[in-house]
Amino acid sequence: QALSAMADPRDIAEAVRRACVDAALEAYEDAQIRGLCREGAWEVAIEAVRTLDVAAVIAAAEKKD
User: Fold this and answer.
1) CB-count exposure of residue 39 (10 Å: 0-12, 13-18, 19+)
2) 57: which of 19, 41, 47, 63 is 20 to 30 A away, CA to CA?
């Protein structure tokens, strides 16, 4: 099925953006709690975004419709 038939592409994009921001913030805060410096925490945050399961975020967004 076409993506547009399942969910509004803007809703999907917003869900992915929110998930990326949430993943980055959570990873950054956790890294700082574990004692990493700002640079190290930033690297952990970026890796969290890189490894985010985008397919799962999209599937969840589609279920909301």
Assistant:
1) exposed
2) 41
